[in-house]
Design goal:
Shape: globular
Number of domains: 2
Largest sheet: 9 strands, mixed
């Protein structure tokens, strides 16, 4: 007997609580006051170490790095995970609000966010996305997360009572959404600035209620969204939401903490760069022996210039001051396996693991990773210095492959994708009340 509060009674109540939820929704952003965006804008928290952040924030009292990397305002050498660091971030956020540097919109809005890097332009929608849809895999993942990095983001969100680092989402492009976003960009932007790394950031506020409603409806009609970058931030938002639901059992089921800060870009505008590999030693093999082993599974051709792969299944190898072009034997490519056919999987399973003896790239200190934004010159530099013995250049992972992996419920190997340009911190934050 289930009684008055048996499963048969509770389940409809849960469904009713969640009934008002949509895949995304507008929100009251906390953002720079007029004329303050250039003072505030900062790189994402996870692309700088503490020393780099301290240097970037020098002379900039309102830099958002003082919230996302608050150890820069404490004694040098402090553990970034010390309680005092999280408390300092919250103190700095309160100060920026109290001083009027950051202000919160009076009513929920969407925000259109354009990134311009050279001749590349991508325009997306800033919204808050449903944690419940993340938990049910309607917002799909393609990476494992590390507990320590999740824990850091949970503590940061909880201490600030806000999400300050947006999750980078993507979706299969939709003509109606394109039109609505294009319409929004015809008005005067709220912010239009070029950061110190040369990336231009332009933001428009979407207040028009019919447009807001249509955007919500168009996204809610989509079968799914995909996380491009920000797996630790989204996982942490899910954990914070679960903790707050447990502490607030009488909540509506549609609270601010039931959503996470995101920017969604259409798939036809996103650029993925190569994510290259450096190896510290040759696993006891001479260069000649290594090349002989590689030839068992790859065609190998010496090249006079640095090798940037021209297509999937092709790799560059730099060793002993010489570049080689490697082309995997086609019978080695498992066409029906969305993870196994990825270039990084092929390189790992047919060379890095069996020949170089690296089976756990997440933990093995013999391997390092370099985003394609650094160029092939960075690979040459680190090998020629003697720090590394050899380097591999890769063809960029396609967004179609990323989506196929996520659709299959699988995960990609670590360091498979490098997205450029990066979203800034500080232009839009989501307060959890």
């Amino acid at each position: 007997m289930q009684g008055a509060y048996g499963i048969g009674t509770i389940a409809p109540l849960i469904r009713n609580k969640a009934a008002a939820m949509t895949l995304i929704r507008p929100f009251r952003a906390l953002r720079p006051a007029a004329g303050r965006a250039e003072d505030v804008v900062a790189p994402p928290y996870d692309v700088l170490n503490s020393d780099e952040a301290r240097a970037r924030a020098e002379g900039r009292p309102w830099s958002f790095l003082r919230i996302s990397k608050p150890e820069i305002d404490l004694a040098e050498g402090i553990d970034p995970h010390d309680d005092a660091v999280y408390a300092k971030g919250a103190e700095n956020l309160r100060r920026m609000v109290d001083e009027g540097v950051l202000v919160r919109d009076a009513r929920p809005c969407y925000y259109v966010y354009r990134l311009t890097m050279g001749d590349h332009v991508q325009t997306g929608l800033v919204a808050i996305a449903s944690v419940r849809d993340y938990d049910s895999n309607r917002i799909r993942k393609h990476e494992f997360t590390r507990p320590d990095k999740e824990d850091d983001r949970v503590r940061q969100i909880d201490e600030l009572n806000a999400q300050t680092g947006p999750v980078f989402l993507t979706y299969r492009h939709d003509a109606a959404v394109d039109g609505l976003i294009r319409k929004a960009t015809q008005q005067e932007p709220e912010y239009d600035l070029t950061a110190d790394d040369g990336i231009r950031h332009t933001v428009w506020v979407v207040r028009d209620e019919p447009t807001v409603r249509q955007l919500t409806e168009r996204f809610d009609a989509m079968p799914c969204l995909y996380i491009a970058d920000g797996h630790h931030r989204s996982a942490a938002a899910s954990r914070v939401a679960a903790l707050r639901r447990a502490a607030n059992p009488d909540g509506s089921g549609d609270e601010a903490y039931d959503y996470f800060l995101s920017v969604a870009f259409p798939d036809d505008q996103i650029r993925i760069l190569d994510y290259n590999r450096l190896i510290r030693d040759t696993n006891g093999l001479s260069t000649e022996q290594l090349l002989q082993r590689i030839q068992e599974r790859f065609d190998v051709d010496a090249e006079a210039a640095p090798v940037r792969p021209r297509q999937a299944g092709e790799f560059g190898l730099f060793i002993a001051d010489q570049w080689y072009r490697l082309s995997i034997h086609r019978d080695r490519v498992p066409s029906s396996d969305p993870v196994g056919r990825l270039d990084i999987s092929l390189l790992s399973s047919h060379l890095i693991e069996p020949v170089l003896g690296i089976s756990d790239p997440r933990r093995d200190k013999r391997i390092d990773f370099v985003g394609g934004i650094r160029g092939l010159g960075e690979l040459e530099k680190r090998v020629r210095s003697g720090e590394m013995a050899l380097a591999f250049s890769l063809y960029p992972t396609s967004l179609a492959d990323l989506m196929a992996v996520a659709d299959a419920g699988e995960v990609m190997p670590p360091k498979s994708t490098w997205f450029e340009p990066k979203l800034a911190d500080g232009l839009v934050s989501h307060v959890l009340d």
